[in-house]
Every structure is written in C-alpha cells, then in structure tokens.
Amino acid sequence: LLVRYQNQLYAQSHFVAKNPVSEPVSEPQRTESRMSEKLNAYRRADAPLPEKNLLWPLYGAGFESLGKEGMMIEREMPQPGPDELLVRHDAVGLCFSDIKVIKQGQSHTRIFKDMKTDPVVLGHEVSMTIVQVGENLRDQYQVGQRYIIQADIYKDGVNYAYGYMIQGGLSEYALIDQRVLNGDDGNYLLPVQDETGYAESALTEPWACVIAAYELAYRTVLQPGGTTWIIGTSDAGADYQISAGMDASAHPGRVILTDVPESLATWVKGQAVQLGFELIERNGIQPNAYPSMCEFAPDAIDDIIVLGADADVVEAASPLMAMHGIVCIMADAPLARKVAVDVGRIHYHRWTYVGSTGTDIAAAYSTHPVRSALKPGGTALFVGAGGPMGRMHVQRAIQLENGPRIVACTDISDARLQDMQETFGPQAREQSVELVTLNPMNKDTYAAGMARLTAADGPIGGGFDDIVVLAPVAAVIAQAS
After folding, report:
1. What is the pLDDT of residue 478?
2. What's this model's pTM, rounded to 2 decimal places?
3. Alpha-carbon distance 200 to 323, whole Å?
4. What would the pLDDT profile of 204-233 be if each residue is shown by its tens digit?
5. What DSSP designation does 65 have?
6. DSSP run (H or E) holding 73
7. Alpha carbon 46 to its chain's center
8. At what angle do helices 388-399 and 414-430 cross, to 10 degrees?
9. Average pLDDT, whole number, for the chain?
10. d(CA 481, CA 479)
C-alpha cells in the first residue's frame, strides 16, 4: 500500500509539473499533499521527541500482569549514552512466542531476570528508525536510518533476546546498546532499504524463522572439545564401541563415566591417556541425584549417551543438556514408558535425540543425520497451518522449485482452510502439487482424509515424509508423531 501511495504521489507531482496551467488543486489533492508531508517528516525522524515514552511492560504470568490496570504506562523518554542509539519502533508483529511469555511469565526459558522489578517489554518482530545517536557513534549512524533486528542477541555467551531480556517493540522508543551493536556475532542491527515498508520490514523476522527451519545443520559426531557423559543402565549390553569422534582427529575435552560396562570404560580411559582429555568416573549415582553432575560439568553437557532402555535415566539426564545438546539412546528394546521431555528446549535450544539398536555409538550419530529440508517430491503435513506462520510454511512449500508433491494442511477453522485453498490452490495446481485441507473437528471427514493419505497403498504409502507442527500443544505434537 505504501508503494502504491508513493507511486500516486509521484504521478501527481509529475502531472502538476508538466501542466502548470492545469485545474486548481482539489481538496483531496491537498489532503494527499499534507499526508505526503507528514509521511516524509516521519521518515526523516528529526522532529522534537515527546517527553514521555509509552510502553506495555509485563510483570509476570497472565494478561492481568500486562501494563497497569489493562493500560500501557508512561515513562521518561530514555536518553542515549555515548555508545548507544535511541530508536523509534515503527512496526511490530505479535508472535506466538509473546503469548508463551505472557502465559509462562518468569518460568519461560528465555527469561532470567526478576520480572516484578525489571518487567519484560515484548516485541521482537520489529522495524525501527534511529532518532538520536550517542556521541561516540556519530561517525557510524545517522538520524533517520532504518533497521530491523536479529532478535536472538548473544553477548559474552549470554542470550539477551530482544523483546525478552532487552526492551522490545511494544514500546514507542528504546535504547540500543553495545550488546546489540557489538555482540558475540557482531552487529545485530540489519539495515532496511528505503523503499521497503515498515510493516513489511517487521515481517522479516517470522519469515526468517520459516526459512531457517529448513536450513538447520545438526551435529553428527560427539562435540569436539565438549563434555560427554556416558551412563550405563541395568539394560546395558556388554560390547559397545565408539568408532569415530573420540580419536586423534576429534574428541571431547571431558568425558564422564557412570556405571559404564567394563570393556567400554577401559577403552575410554585408554583414549583419555593417549589423547589428553579429562576423565571423570562417578558410579552409583541415581537419576534423582543427576543435578549434582553440574559440579563436574558447570557449562552443561553436550552429549549424553544412555546405554540401555531406561526411561528414568533419559528423563532425568535430559535437563542437563547444553544448547544444541544430543541424547543418544543405545538400546535394542523399547523404553518401558513414555518419557517427558521439554519441547520448548527442543525448539529453542535445539536439543536432539538419536539412537541405535546396534553397539557402535558413533553410528547412532552418523548413520541417519537429521534432514532439515522438505523431501523433494515427498509428502508434507502442516499441523495447525491456518495461522500466519502456518500460511508462510505452506506458501514456501508450494513455491519450492523441487518441493513436496502433496501438501496436507490441518486447522480447526473451516474459514481458514477455505481461505488457504482460495489463496494457494491455483498456484498449487500450477506447480502440480496436491493441496489437501482437513479439519480435525470434522471427525468423519478428517479420519477419511487421513486414512486415504496414510493407507499403505495410498498416495503417501503409509506415512508423511515431513511433519511441521505449528501448534505448541504437547498432545498435538504427540499425535502428529
């Protein structure tokens, strides 16, 4: 709409310039001219700033903790220090992650401050304009420059995500400090082209999440230089090997052994002497005492290898995993019960679970590396596809040059599913993609549709190649699996 409006203004200005004796300017033209002046002034961002800054602070779990008495609050306009920028938030998207923070409050994975005294200001899908520049930054930044922000900000290994730990887009103005400008990955501000709209820019973050979901690279060996914990259980066999990842080419920096069968323990101890990594032996520790292992691995554990099918061990050890950690289960029998795992940390911390029915631990990592891209010519199921993120995933799948041949979408809203067919159906047909939409609330139709798709002799031959779950509900995730 902004581009269309700019084109109209451009055409009008050229018409007036070329026709100086044209009809007098009408009232709609005057209104449009005033709007143009107002928009240009907003873009320049050089007008005097208000005395107060409006924002929506979140003091804890629940919507009743958002703002004061259901209203935003006023604070003094922040003043940038010598190494800071003051930015105006131009547009902000509402992510389901924002709803998670409101729902979970202090217990959310990315919140590690006292929200009552230092409230969270949500909003990480945001576009911004610089309105003041600190003294030491004036050779690098200018008032009026526009940016979006890579929200997952790290400084000295600590996650200060924008809209979580750093004040986010549900505020008119905010300070950008050196955590953003000089973080572990460099500068987290990304410049925006002049012709790109404000809301259009804010949509970059969710679209980036969609794209990134299919480009993740998963580790296929023990973490070099990391911490590996090997745990033997009562179901452990006697003959395990590690054919790669613990040799001269690459090996952990620390290995912890707990009740490991003698042959493997002896081999690992020999490798420790030969390769020079730290070895710790801690036997007889029960699952309820696993938190004490933090004494030996204060930076968390990169690889947890469970020898045998013990659900209690898997469940108790998992919370000790580091970012991008892996649990490897070596068992030739199923676990005796379901295991409770933190889906949020699988999502945010990229925890991975691998396993093998054989005896070579390295093979459990490398034999079946996780495929991130949708299978070319395959079949994909998008669960809860009718929302904004789901539509992005579906649109991308249909538009892929070598994407899936069947795209199945579920949602509990018939209106959303119908709109999806109307929006994406024509392009799906052009791409020779079968677009299937099913509502699980319409039980008979849903069951029949799924039975057709998943029948052994059906179009997908027994199961989907890829399932993308857009609904953060444990029961839905379990059902999709």
Report:
1. 86
2. 0.73
3. 31
4. 999 998 999 999 888 899 999 999 999 999
5. G
6. strand 73-76
7. 35
8. 20
9. 90
10. 5
On whether the CB atoms of residues 85 and 176 are closer than 8 A, the answer is: yes
Q: Name 21's Cβ contacts closer than 8 Å, sequence gap at least 6.
A: none
Concatenating the DSSP letter of every residue in 228-295 gives EEEEE-TT--S--B--SSSBTTB--SEEEEES--HHHHHHHHHHHHHH--EEEE--S--GGGGGGGGG
Quick check: 266 and 292 in contact, CB under 8 A?
A: no
| Closest of 245, 256, 244 to residue 298, by C-alpha | 256
Contact 22, 15 (CB under 8 A): yes
Read off the tokens for 60. Answer: 């804890």
118: DSSP letter: S
Report the phi/psi class of residue 284: left, alpha or beta, with left for phi > 0 and alpha for psi in -120 to 50. Answer: left
* Residue at 309: amino acid letter: A
Whether the Cβ atoms of residue 124 and residue 100 lie closer than 8 Å to each other = no
Residue with structure tokens 């050890």? 317
3-state secondary structure of 98: helix
* Distance separating alpha carbons of residues 450 and 459, to the nearest angstrom: 11
